Amino acid sequence: MKVERIALSGFRNYDQECVEFSGATNVIKGENGQGKTNLLEAVYMLTCGRSFRTRLDRELVGFGFSNAEILADTESHGREQTIKIVMTPGQRKQITVNAVKKSASELSGGLNSVLFCPDDLDLVKEGASVRRRLMDTAIGQLRPNYAKLAAEYSRLYDQKSAILRDWREKPSLLETLDDFSARMCAVSARLIRYRAAFVKRLAAAAGPIHREFSGGADELELQYLTVSTVRDPFSPEREIFYDVCEHQEAHRRAEIESGQCLTGAHKDDIAISINGRSARTFGSQGQKRTAALSIKLAEREIFLQETGEYPVLLLDDVLSELDAKRQDYVLNRIGAGQTLITCCEDDGIAKRTGARVLTISGGRLI
Ligand code: ATP
Ligand code: MG
Known about the structure:
single chain, alpha/beta, six-stranded antiparallel beta sheet, six-stranded mixed beta sheet, binds magnesium ion, DNA damage, ATP-binding, RecF_2, cytoplasm
């Protein structure tokens, strides 16, 4: 799986530029604010039609441009694909693959990527939303239906939140509350099954990586956490639905009184433990980082198992955040597959990996 070349026009700080990547490791080098992350962002968009930095397409359009365009030649499973994404403020973005119109969720199944940025190093330390995002972005790429379900859930959540927030001014809003709650329970049940299966696989892949990484000292375990009344997240959807509804009914009054959505898959999390104890509570800074690295590298392995090819690995500014031992571990593990690494200083990364070096300055390749 790889991106062969990408042409950007009016995208972020790229007026007009075309970049060719090597199929192995690429080091994207440049000073701060030159467009390194913007380039990764454009590549990421080819895999899911969305940015990892903003939900608003208009922020992607270059200052002074009326629209932004990404045009890329990619290869996955022996198939060459030309992907084009055009973003025009006030309009829906246009996506085509080999000149055939597609929706963002239809991009999954083609090119995949795993993004790794400094925030991911705080995967263990941060609140649950970071870990939910990991589940959502990974499963969304692997299962086309998941991305649609997650988008539907987020719409229902926004609508139900608005009802709970505004019903005191407009009591008639409460008439539709139960309908929204039931629909959220139904979608939750489906999301829960996908997430439980994914976390199980992630745990199986991350365990051995972490053991190797920590020199056999630490045993990493991951456990999927969801609505407390769900007895078994692997049971049939209908059973999970009933369990989620039970929680919903028990919290109906509290939701109305507090004005907040208190039940559903939007509160899910992954419990991460090292040697049987919560890594978040008891882990050292170094142990938390190692665990985060193991989990991200495991994510890449799952894509390999699932699709038979490594996804494009996007390392945005992470290497500079790691000590020499961890840097080496990551670079040695990358092995096969295409990787794009951004950094301010090369620090011998290119030499160690035989990477192609691309220097970016002011939205241009030099
Ligand atoms: P760092 O090393 O600090 O991470 P970087 O090379 O990754 O830097 P980018 O995040 O890619 O930098 O951003 C480069 C520049 O793009 C910033 O200076 C920012 O002002 C500019 N930029 C962001 N959005 C737009 C836009 N819509 N139009 C034009 N320029 C933009
Ligand atoms: Mg950057």
